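Problem 12. The chain below contains 77 residues. Write out its predicted structure in token notation.
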Amino acid sequence: MTTWFGVLAPKGTSPAIVGYLNSNLQKVFDDANTKKRLLDSGMEPGGGSAESFAALIRSDYRKWEVVVKASGATLDE
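Solution.
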């Protein structure tokens, strides 16, 4: 199991805005000082396209959906 963090935008956000945010966040992840701080904290800096992140979310959703259903876990309200 791995944990990841990401930045999401509301559905319908302009692709231009998503691209702008993505390219600027990628610059942060590519910065040597940022990489060092993340690695020193036990994190692996990532990044990539919005499409690859969306694919990761879908993949993890499908994987964990099976586990949750098999476990019988329910949400307490």
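Discussion. The chain has a mean pLDDT of 92. Students who got a different answer should revisit the alignment rule from Section 12.3.
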